[in-house]
Amino acid sequence: MHIVVDEDKCVAGGQCVFAAPEVFDQRDDDGIVVLLDERPPISSEEDVLTAISLCPAAAIRLADQDAR
After folding, report:
1. What values do phi and psi take at 53, rounded to 5?
2. How far is CA 26 from each of CA 8, 15, 57, 68, rounded to the nearest angstrom?
3. Which of 11, 33, 40, 47 has a CA 20 to 30 Å removed from the CA of 56?
4. Per-residue pLDDT at 66 exceeds 60
């Protein structure tokens, strides 16, 4: 699993941090997503998929989705 974030799309909603705090954080100054681990362990997959689905700006995706 390889995660990609688009900081330009991020609206600082913070849903990703609530869903997967071991993978995502937010910058203190503007709340934009910070990717803590772009290749988290498979044990984080469910949380990451939840974060992706909750992102109001669709700023988070799996790199594998590029091929689709």
Report:
1. -70, -30
2. 14, 10, 15, 29
3. 40
4. no
Question: Among all chains, which residue has been given the structure tokens 């998929």?
Answer: 49
What per-residue confidence (pLDDT) applies to 8? 96
Amino acid in position 45: E
The strand pairing partners of 35, in sequence order, are 24
DSSP annotation string for 30-43: T--EEES-SS--GG
Compute the average pLDDT of residues 19-35: 97
User: Length of the chain in residues, anyone?
Assistant: 68
- If one counts every other C-beta atom within 10 angstroms of the C-beta of residue 44, the result is 17
Q: Which two tokens stand for residue 12?
A: 């600082």
Tokens 């203190």 sit on residue: 28
pTM exceeding the 0.85 threshold for the entire prediction: yes
